[in-house]
Every structure is written in C-alpha cells, then in structure tokens.
## 1
Amino acid sequence: MTERKVFKDLTRNGSKRPWRRNKLDNLTYAEYLLMLHYRKAAKVKECGNVLRFKKAKDGSLKLYQTWFCKSRLCPLCAWRRSMKNSNQLIQILNESHKEYPKGRFLFLTLSTKNTYSDNLNKELRHYGTAFNRMINYKKISKNLLGYVRSTEITVNHDDGSYNQHMHILLFVSSRYFKDSDNYISQAEWTKYWRKAMKLDYQPMVNVEAVHPSKSKNDLLAGVKETAKYQVKSADYITDDEQRDLQVTDDLEQALSHTRAISYGKLFKTIRKKLQLEDEDDLVNTDDPNEDSVLTDSEIVVAKWNYELQNYFIS
Ligand SMILES: [Zn+2]
C-alpha cells in the first residue's frame, strides 16, 4: 500500500489556504440540503472533490481544474467567489484611479430594519431597485463616476430575523467635496435612502470618505468588506442543527435569482475592458500575482477522502 500524503496549499507568505475547513463546511451544507429535500444536494456534495493544480517554480500552486457546484451558500464556492471579487475589484479601482487621478472613494453602508424569512427575497429585490432609483437623484448622479455594491445578510439567532445591508464603494469626482451644492452629508444620504426605499422611519446609513493620503489601506479594507461573503457560513453552520436547517432553507429561497455583487458606470466599463466578466469561473480567481509564475509546470492532484476527512495527494 502506498503511503498517503496530506495535501497542503500555502500562500506565498506561508499561510495555509483553507481548503479542508471549507470542504468540511461544504459537506455539512450538502447534508442540510439533503435533509431539506433539495435536489441539488448530491451535486453540492461533489463540489471541489478533485483539485488539479499547476505548480510554479517557487513551489506555489495555482488551481487550474476542478468542479465547483456554484451554489450561493456553498462555503467552498463562497470562499473562491470572495477571493475573485476582491482581486477583480482591486484591478478595477487601480484602473479607475488611472483614468481619474483626482477621483475620490467613499464607502456607503445602507440598511433597513430586520425582516423575517417570508419577506427576505422581496426585500433583497427592493434594495436593488431602490438603490438604482437613488443614484439617479441629481445631486448624487452628477458627481458619481462609478460604483460597486453588494448585499450582506446576517442572522439574528435570538428572534430568527434577518438583517440585510448594502456595502457600496463609490468613486466620485473631486467636485463632490467642493461645496454644499455637491457635498452630501450623512444626514442627506439617509434622507435619500429613506426616500428611495419609501420607508416610514429613519434607516441606518453610514458614509465615510477615504482620505487620499492614507487611501491604500482604507481602500483595501473597503474592498474586503464589499467583496466578502454574502452570508457568513458561521450563520448557518452552528451547533444547533434544527436552527441551521431553518436558516439554510430561508436563505436558499431568499437568495435565488438575486445578484451578490454588481458594478455600475465606470467600474462596469472597466470590468468589461479588463475582461473580468466571467462570474461563474471560480477556478480562475483573477489574482494578478498568480499568472506570471507559471511556466511548463508540474501538476499536483488532490482528492477528498470522505473517510479520513481530508484532501490527499494522488
Ligand atoms: Zn460549491
């Protein structure tokens, strides 16, 4: 019998990529789908079972072939998607900045009161239309160059309600800061969001400008916030199976046919120009650092072993 070798995938700074942890969560999620009688359960369980990598000269691995289930809540796919989104966003922001060196970045967080599962899908759609309405308000649209938005849902385990909020990264012309005809205060953003959503209460809105002198770190933090998971797996994979089943079922239904992230105006144009539009390709995460190192490389194959609960080199 040949000796088994546990698969390890290290980043360049030596940290371990969380394949195993995400595959274990994927199996829990697949189990929940099976218990809830979702037809896709069996397919989800196959997600990322065989991973084929190319090995670069420096020993780093780049995934080049596998099968991903692409289910929105799949922890393995969500992890790949969030990496891809943040790599893409960094490239888009760099390019935008080149085109408009004086442009400034703002982070906007929009939310509403918590809602319950039967209303969640409707609310998610409502967020999208209200946002599109809002950015067409004259004072907003006149200085808006580009934007990217994503919706995050968190679960309140105490009362079973859901909180959704939208993270938006806005790129505005420097005129935005010129005077009160252009500058939009937090109170004004709140007023606009309330109007666009047609709410009868004051919603929570937060806006922060990225200071040009320290923009790099602030911007990266914002990119991570915007590109991160739509729902944290810790919200539906806990030690309470009954509750997890309810939450998984609610979210499966709420998220169907909704978009996780969308780009507008200049960001959309640049994304197209850079050919970053293939959202379904979770093998290639568009990490610009990964491409240069690949030459005629060695292939590494890792296979999931259900019994031993880990990936092994085969
Ligand atoms: Zn998956």
## 2
Amino acid sequence: MLLEAQEVSKSFRGRRGSADVVAVDAASMSVAPGRFVAVVGESGSGKSTLARMLLGLIPVTGGTVLLDGEDIASMRGERLAHFRRSVQAVLQDPAGSLNPRKRVRQAIAEVVRLHRIASGPAAVREKVVEALELVGLSPGEQFLDRFPGELSGGQRQRVLIARAIVVGPRIIVADEAVSALDASVKAGVLRTMRDLTERLGVGYVFITHDLPVVKKVADEVIVMKSGRIVESGPKTAIFSEPRQEYTRTLLAAAPVLEPAR
Ligand SMILES: Nc1ncnc2c1ncn2[C@@H]1O[C@H](COP(=O)(O)OP(=O)(O)OP(=O)(O)O)[C@@H](O)[C@H]1O
Ligand SMILES: [Mg+2]
C-alpha cells in the first residue's frame, strides 16, 4: 500500500480582492506502511494543509492524492470506506479532538461501529480494550469510563492514537500530535507510535516543528518552505548533509538532543 501526493497544490481564495494564498505548491511525496516520514518547516509553510489533503479532508486545487495508484477524489462507496479506514488522522489534542462529555469507551466504540470493525457490546468492548492496551493504557478496563478531563495530556493523546489504531489503519497522518506534551511524556507517546510501526506495520506522516523528535524517530524527512517541498530524503542524509541553506538554518535552530536516560 502506498499513499502518494503527486504535485498537489492548494490555494485559498484571498479575502476582499487580496491575492490568493498558495498554501501548498506542487508538492510530491509518498509514505508506505512501516515508514516514518517526518514533515518539518516553519510556521505557515503548508504542513497542515498538505496533511489535510492527504487525509482527503479538503480538496486539492491541483495534482492528485493517490492510494495504491487510485485518485482519492474519485473514490466512492466501498473504495472510499477502505481509504477512510486505511488512512487515519491523529491531531493535536488541545484542538478539541475529544469530546469532553464522552467517556473513553464511547469515543472509541463509535468509530468501531462506524467502520464496522465489530458489532455487539461484548465484541466492541473487547476491541476498545485491545486498542487502549496497544497504546500503553493498561489495563484498558481502567480507562473505559473516564472522561477526557480525567486523563493526563499524554493519556489523552494515547486515547486519540487508540481511536485511530482501532480501525486497523495502514497509515496515520499525525499533525503536531505530541507537540503540546512535556519532554518525558512526549518520549513515551513517541515510543508507542514507533512501536506500532514495528508491531503492526503502521506508516506515519508525522508533522512537527520539533527537530529533536525527528532525529529520534523518523526514517525520512521532508522539508517545506512557503508551500514547497525544498528538500527530502533519508533522515541521516538530511541531518548530516543538508543541501539547502534553509534546512541548515532550521537544523541549527534546533536544540541539542537530550542524552538518552
Ligand atoms: N482555510 C484557510 N483559508 C485561508 N488561508 C489558509 C487556510 N488554511 C491555511 N491557510 C494559509 O495557508 C498557509 C499554510 O498554512 P498551514 O496551516 O498549512 O501551515 P503550517 O505549516 O501547518 O503552519 P504551523 O506550523 O503554524 O501549523 C498559511 O499562510 C495559512 O495562513
Ligand atoms: Mg500546522
């Protein structure tokens, strides 16, 4: 399976006669299961817009997003349902991804039912518990009846990952998914995400402004600037021999990695 963007562009209509904003300009990239692809770049460089196009949340204004060679814009019915299961989003928690009035059990169970992963209360509950334990919320039963407000930031982020993982995705698009967490909690959530690449073969498009995180977990790095992909390649190459001045500046601005404890 391969999720690809081929020369995708997105422009937003300018307000009251001002020029259109070209948020993403002919960007091409791909991600396969088991690969950890990090997307970095300064604020406003188009990272989130690219992510939303990869997820099919907003239409492209140019180019194509393809899953296994098939244009996602032309998918309907079972093909579209397959795409929606295969490619899941994990967004930043403070953006309100979890309804504060829904218990963990309900938040995850509704996607299980929506995607017809299981039916019947016992089978659904089993799926929910299994997903919670996969993301390190163990024993899962202890978390079922909690509201988001009764969880720590790291636990909430894990619930969001569990909700994505429960439908059996091959690729997860994560936009600033750990940015709000403090260092040690972040490291734990990242380990869990990385672990899912190895255990379940999940691939990631991982958007972050956090270069130490990239250095730790990525296989490949994509650098964006003003809507364009200005550099991409294996992490080791990007970090050891950045070709673009912009990448060098970005890397120089990153704090030094904490030594592993
Ligand atoms: N719905 C929209 N309408 C108009 N302009 C938009 C819209 N969404 C994004 N933009 C613009 O597109 C550009 C890229 O935004 P985007 O959110 O993709 O950046 P980003 O790289 O994710 O930034 P950050 O690191 O701050 O999250 C910005 O100039 C932004 O103002
Ligand atoms: Mg963003």
